[in-house]
Amino acid sequence: MPNPLKYQVYPNIKGIVTLNSVPVKNAIVNLTYRLNNKKGASTYTTSDNGTFFFKEKNIYSLSGILPFEDILYQKITIINNNAEYIAWEAMKDKQEEDLILTKILSSLTCELSNSETKHIINPESIFKNVIYGLARWTN
């Protein structure tokens, strides 16, 4: 049974930063979130092979048992050679884990030469997720 007090801010996030398909070492990857009056941030410096990882983050609050929905805002930016890129920007309106987003966030490819674009996940659903940024993933 799901815990009504648990709000998944983000699942484990794994990715790689590349430039022209070459892994980028020592890029700074910033992850920020905002949920009502709660804000948080984490930073990771990419490894020699360009990879980064953020461990799952959950918040426990009474919002899960109150009769209104919270909106979670997430953003991942990458700083490399004094340039900042938006890799991932999304909003989530569900407290529980979103299996599609969990799968996507487990395999991000952040090619810095990509254009920042809008992606729609679950276009047939009324509750579609809109994601913006240069990150790409395999389905």
Structure write-up:
The protein has 139 residues and is mainly β. 5% of the residues lie in helices and 53% in strands. The protein is built from 1 helix and 13 strands. It starts with 5 loop residues before the first strand and ends with a strand. 22% of the residues are buried.
**Helix content range of the residues, please?**
under 10%
Distance between the termini: 28 Å
Number of helices: 1
Count of the separate structural domains:
1
Tell me the fraction of residues in β-strands, as a range: over 45%
- CATH T-level topology: Immunoglobulin-like
CATH architecture: Sandwich
| Relevant CATH superfamily | Immunoglobulins
Spatial order of strands in the largest sheet: 5-4-8-9-12-11
| CATH top level label | Mainly Beta
pLDDT < 50 stretches: none
> What structural class do the secondary elements suggest?
mainly beta
Using only C-alpha atoms, the radius of gyration works out to 15 Å
In short:
By secondary structure, this protein is mostly beta strands. It is built from one helix and 13 strands, in the order E-E-E-E-E-E-E-E-E-H-E-E-E-E. Helices cover 5% and strands 53% of the residues.
